[in-house]
């Protein structure tokens, strides 16, 4: 279900993933040397885990997945990732056996397994022993040419249902964080409904009929997948949060995350005119995932949906910079001509809920670093 990329791009991503793991080496304590024998040898760090520090990231070598894994390792988590096939797993094992990974630090904290996203049993086996699951993947165009199609939206919904069902069937899993999209919030029939609130926040949902009529298949896929996740979570008693991400930016984001990027930009000109086109840096997005999970893990108040963005593209210079970064014509971002004043309704995006959670977490960390043992009580 992951992106089938060219060999060159795949090699670049594996190399980036290797550097990412090496960069984490200096911040973790030494693990049992027996864990250095290989991914399935010895005792993985999840056994006996009582603090929720063992987690699984689906499609962990995807663009978003790698960033989340990096952030988790830096925070001291034991991370298991799922990969799509044996080839990807073998490439990761090569990194671990060439000596490049012989740091003696992280090998006990990281493991990769093959799991079919179409197979609930396969997913449940991958999740076994993990306290939390980050579901990050989206189905992508194998050829990288046609973009995100309607059939891909249907598959994305099914995959999300499989992941949620696997979480429900795995006794160790307590919390799940779903990577959704801001597109699941912003397409609400703005042109026809003057009754709509002027602020788009975590309570806002896109309208399926609007997505279908405009052929916004990526928005439709994310919308239906998130709704399916919430339905199963409620039915099966799972603790779920969702991160509704803006357009992801960062180093080589378009070349390494092509299908979601191209698909997100469909309808960008209309979002720009409405004040709803926003971006988020990949590192900040990953940090938001981890902070939300840590709040869930610690029994605090993280719940529901969180909108995640760090910039609204609402001016011509911002649109020009985004077009340059994405490598697309400016018209793709903001349209060929400016809207006539007064003819386009403007909205405001709000990520206040996520900012509130992040500020509480940062206060707790600051106070704990200063020796305040009961900091969490004051931060709640």
From TrEMBL:
The keyword Oxidoreductase applies. Residues 57-261 form the NAD-dependent epimerase/dehydratase domain. Keywords: NADP, Oxidoreductase. InterPro entries: Epimerase_deHydtase, NAD(P)-bd_dom_sf, NAD(P)_dehydrat-like. GO terms for molecular function: oxidoreductase activity, acting on the CH-OH group of donors, NAD or NADP as acceptor. Gene3D superfamilies: NAD(P)-binding Rossmann-like Domain (3.40.50.720). The keyword NADP applies. This is NAD-dependent epimerase/dehydratase domain-containing protein. It comes from Trapa incisa.
């Amino acid at each position: 279900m992951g992106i089938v990329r060219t060999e060159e791009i795949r090699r670049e991503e594996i190399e980036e993933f290797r550097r990412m793991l090496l960069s984490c080496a200096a911040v973790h304590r030494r693990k049992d040397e027996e864990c250095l024998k290989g991914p399935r040898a010895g005792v993985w760090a999840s056994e006996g885990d009582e603090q929720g520090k063992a987690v699984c990231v689906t499609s962990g070598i995807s663009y978003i997945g790698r960033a989340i894994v990096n952030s988790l390792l830096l925070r001291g988590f034991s991370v298991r990732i799922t990969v799509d096939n044996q080839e990807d797993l073998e490439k990761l094992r090569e990194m671990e056996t060439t000596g490049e990974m012989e740091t003696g630090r992280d090998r006990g904290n990281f493991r990769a397994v093959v799991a079919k996203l179409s197979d609930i049993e396969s997913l449940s086996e991958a999740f076994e022993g993990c306290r939390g699951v980050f579901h990050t993947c989206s189905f992508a165009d194998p050829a990288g040419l046609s973009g995100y199609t309607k059939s891909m939206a249907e598959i994305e919904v099914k995959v999300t249902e499989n992941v949620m069902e696997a979480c429900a069937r795995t006794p160790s899993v307590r919390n799940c964080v779903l990577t959704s999209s801001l597109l699941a919030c912003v397409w609400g029939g703005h042109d026809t409904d003057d009754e709509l609130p002027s602020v788009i926040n975590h309570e806002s949902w896109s309208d399926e009929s609007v997505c279908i009529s405009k052929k916004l298949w990526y928005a439709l896929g994310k919308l239906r997948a998130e709704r399916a996740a919430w339905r199963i979570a409620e039915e099966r008693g799972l603790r779920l949060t969702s991160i509704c991400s803006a357009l992801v930016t960062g180093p080589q984001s378009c070349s390494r995350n092509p299908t979601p990027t191209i698909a997100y930009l469909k309808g960008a000109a209309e979002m720009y005119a409405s004040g709803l086109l926003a971006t988020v840096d990949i590192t900040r997005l990953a940090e938001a995932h981890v902070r939300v999970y840590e709040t869930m893990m610690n029994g605090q108040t993280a719940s529901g949906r969180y909108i995640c963005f760090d910039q609204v593209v609402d001016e011509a210079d911002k649109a020009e910079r985004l077009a340059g970064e994405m490598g697309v014509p400016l018209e793709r971002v903001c349209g060929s001509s400016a809207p006539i004043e007064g003819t386009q309704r403007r909205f405001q995006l709000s990520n206040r809920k996520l900012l509130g959670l992040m500020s509480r977490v940062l206060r707790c960390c600051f106070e704990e670093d200063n020796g305040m043992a009961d900091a969490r009580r004051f931060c709640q």
